[in-house]
Amino acid sequence: MLNVQNISLFYGAAQALRGVSVEARLGQVTCVLGRNGVGKSSLLRAVVGHRPIAGGTIQLDGREVSRLKPYDRARGGIAYVPQGREIFPLLTVRENLETGYAPLKRKDRHVPPEVFEIFPVLKSMLGRRGGDLSGGQQQQLAIGRALTTRPKLLVLDEPTEGIQPSIIKDIGRAIRLLRDRGDMAILLVEQYFEFARELADRFILLERGEVVASGGPAELAGDEVRARMAI
């Protein structure tokens, strides 16, 4: 579904990504791992179109999207849950979910039932303002908003950050359900090693903007990966 080949990205004179390649396949979770400041979020911003790349290609379902605006990538099937969630605190839960209608055709502008099946707490809070929810509930709302767009590729930036353990389990279960459905690719940035290890079908490990290791679940359990992620 996603094929990123040899991309480079700069912030002014500083190079954040150096020839990074990654794939995300339908029915799989691809985890991007690494310490703070190694380029993980920059990679996601490149994929969703929030930062322009200086070289390389980004393809979604075989279509070149490297030069498309973020809203055109959203219409093409990319949904983004950014670090920090970025819900609208003064809008209700219902209104936050409805902002996911933006890339949809009129006939599709309703919240899919699966959003409430995966996160039942949202159904009981539709009239509450987003800013009144706990951090974990806001994260569920942010993922629910992304799912409302009916994505082909779900991009998650550190969904466990600042979340209580019980909600981390709920989010992990939700990601497994979405993966096992088989019609969506999931690209996940994560620093919580155990969470990543339980979910990853494939992983890449970044260091100083470069891929230094990649592979499947067996390689992810290795001491080298743990050591390179240690802060």
Question: How would you describe this protein?
Answer:
The protein is globular, with a radius of gyration of 17 Å. A hairpin with a 2-residue loop joins β4 (55-60) and β5 (63-64). With 231 residues, it is α/β, with parallel strands linked by helices. The protein has one domain (2-229): 3-Layer(aba) Sandwich (Rossmann fold). The protein starts with a strand and ends with a helix. The mean pLDDT is 92. The protein has helices at 40-48, 70-76, 93-98, 113-118, 120-123, 135-148, 165-181, 193-199, 217-220, 223-229; strands at 2-11, 14-24, 29-33, 55-60, 63-64, 78-81, 153-157, 185-189, 202-207, 210-215.
Strand order of the largest sheet: 6-7-8-3-9-10
Q: What structural class do the secondary elements suggest?
A: alpha/beta
* CATH fold assignment: Rossmann fold
Strand content: 25-35%
Annotated CATH architecture: 3-Layer(aba) Sandwich
Mean pLDDT: 92
Count, helices: 10
Query: Share of helix among residues?
Result: 25-40%
**What is the CA-based Rg, rounded?**
17 Å
Regions with little confidence, pLDDT below 50 for 5+ residues: none
Shape: globular
How many separate domains make up the residues? 1
